[in-house]
Amino acid sequence: MTNILIVEDDMSLNKGIALTLARDGVVAEQAYTLAQAKERLARGGIDLIVLDVRLPDGSGFDFCAEVRASSQVPIIFLTAGDLEPDIVTGFELGGDDYVTKPFSLMVLRSRVMAVLRRCDPGREDKLLVGELSLDFGRMEFRKGGTSLSLSVTEQKLLKTLILHRGQILTREQLIDTVWGQDSAYVDENALTVTVKRLRAKLEEEPAAPKWIKTVYGLGYMWSEEGA
Predict the structure, then answer these.
(1) Following DSSP, what letter does each residue of 39-64 receive, concatenated?
(2) In the prediction, which pLDDT does 186 show?
(3) Do strands 140-143 and 132-135 pair parallel, antiparallel, or not at all (unpaired)?
(4) pLDDT by residue (tens digit) across 66-114?
(5) CA-angle at 102, arms to 168 and 10, nearest 5°
(6) Of 43, 70, 41, 25, nearest to 51 (Cα)?
(7) Is the peptide bond before 209 cis (omega within 30 degrees of 0)?
(8) Which of 13, 44, 139, 151 is the most buried (most CB within 10 A)?
(9) pTM (2 d.p.)
């Protein structure tokens, strides 16, 4: 389980960020002041901080400096504008990334996940997606309490789709990624069959899939709606 602390005094924005991040094994915890953030951080167990620069009781930059005195927990700054001095200051103080307001919540989510992967390269091998528990490193897969047996090809396809969730991947892209140097000798029907087998193992209703969507004329997509 990944714990992310959101430090943002705009209650509506804080809630929106929390709802967007609280999925795929992520717990989003909220703080609206630096005092609340310090209290929560002192209890430990925070894996990443989303930090507004300007807060009612102080500066996010000062808080970052305090955190960096004793911790290397990743920090993503939220800045009010694309101001170069703010961006430079954030990085110099030890920030890992920044996002300028206004921003897309899904873009912020992608940036958060990218920072988590950089800080823990093995993280992308362990994923929780809805009722699915996927450990690609150990090749252990479960749906609810049931163990799933996936072939190596099915594992590669599943991981590719999930890591690009919400994106349409063409049949050519999937074949190249999953079959690699052998892709030139792979019939397109092999992808169709592999998708069908994955759906049979993952989906409640394979004929009406909620996870692996067909985008007719283009390819396939792992649906955010399914998460």
Answers:
(1) HHHHT----EEEEESEETTEEHHHHH
(2) 77
(3) antiparallel
(4) 999 888 899 999 988 767 888 888 899 999 999 998 899 988 998 898 8
(5) 120
(6) 41
(7) no
(8) 13
(9) 0.58
Terminus-to-terminus CA distance in the chain, angstroms?
Answer: 16
Closest CA to 75 of 115, 102, 128: 115
Q: Each residue of 96-108: pLDDT tens digit?
A: 999 998 899 988 9
Task: Place 205 in a pLDDT band, splitting at 50, 70 and 90.
Answer: very high
> Is 30:37 a contact under the CB 8 Å cutoff?
no
Other C-beta atoms closer than 10 Å to the C-beta of 154 total 19
CB 135 within 8 A of CB 125: yes
Q: Are 60 and 7 in contact (CB under 8 A)?
A: yes
Query: What is the number of other CB atoms lying within 10 angstroms of the CB of residue 175?
Result: 21
Is residue 181 exposed (0-12), middle (13-18) or buried (19+ Cβ within 10 Å)?
exposed
Query: Per mean pLDDT, which range of 60-64, 106-110, 210-214 is the poorest?
Result: 106-110
Phi–psi pair at 150, nearest 5 degrees: -120, 135
Q: Tens of pLDDT along 117-162?
A: 787 655 556 777 778 888 887 888 999 888 999 999 999 999 999 8
Residue 92 to residue 37: CA distance in whole angstroms: 21
Region label for 71, one of left (φ > 0), alpha (ψ between -120 and 50) or beta (otherwise): beta
Q: Hey, how many other C-beta atoms are within 10 angstroms of the C-beta on 132?
A: 19
